[in-house]
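Thread: Newbie trying to understand structure tokens

Hi all, I'm a second-year student working on a class project, and my supervisor (Dr. K.) asked me to get a predicted structure for one chain before our next meeting. I've only ever worked with sequences, so writing a 3D structure as a token string is new to me. If someone could post the tokens and maybe explain what I'm looking at, I'd be very grateful. Here's the chain:
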Amino acid sequence: MWESGRDGAFRTACPVCGDKLIGDAEKGENVCPNCGYTTSAPADSGPEWKAMDLEEKNRRVRVGSPTTLALHDFGLSTEISRSMRDSHGKFLDPAMRVSVEKMRKWQSRTRTINSEERGLSNVLSKISELCDALNLPDNVAETAAQIYRTSAKMKVAKSKSILGMTAATVYLACRKCGVSRTLKEVARAAGMEKGSVARYFRLVLKEVEKEYVPPPSVEKYISKLINMAKIDPKIERLALQISRKTTDSKISSGKAPVGLAAAYVYIASVMAGERFPQREVAEYAEVTEVTVRNRCREILDNFVLRQEFAPIK
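---
Reply by user tm_fold:
Sure, no problem. This is what the structure looks like when written as tokens:
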């Protein structure tokens, strides 16, 4: 075991006489002052440069991109770009474009050596496309890729619809990462029916995840609705305050969080004196006006909203 001395030098016991070794780890050697035994210090595996912030670190790093689960080969292989530009940013001449296109085609073929890898590459590319269409962060794409890899290893994805499994894994990844995307939004972006995506989601949840994953909280849907509708932030603060004060299983049990969020936003807008129509709230939340009215009635029947919920000015 290495020990740090008071002078900053690294010391350890001498294997010959047992005395303390002295020296400088930066020079790569330590010497026993009693018997003269010399040993080398462990090499520093870190970079030889220093960075003050993350931007400088990313600029100075000289290795490739980190491995990712969103690619079938974890991003370890190279890929020829479609930009058709050289290292100076100039467009290639027509003859060189034909040559580069042929190399790109054969390079993409050699990345997948069998049908299993080709299928995995196809599904992971569709997962990335769906995440880009929904403007999802990278951690959601990584989580969705991990879920699909697990389902493929367990033979759950065998003979299943590629689009269905893609939408189901992305929606499950959204719930695991706490990202507020509804099943209807994912199904619309994937070009599928909501019922079909729900069926594949239940299959993946039962066979792969095997534990219930709750949807994002009502607070996240409230913030999402406020941002989509571009409503005054004081209504958001009031809606969040009401939702925290009226948390009860009688209201939230079996209810979609997006419907409750729409009700809280509408109630907060009324209390703030900036009445937001139920129709517009329902449109942004992608629920019916009847759902918004029912959730509002349940909240008002179970709780008394007093003056303490006055908006923050």
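A couple of things are worth pointing out once you decode it. The domain at 1-63 is CATH 3.10.660 (Microbial ribonuclease fold). The longest helix spans residues 115-133. Feel free to ask follow-ups in this thread.
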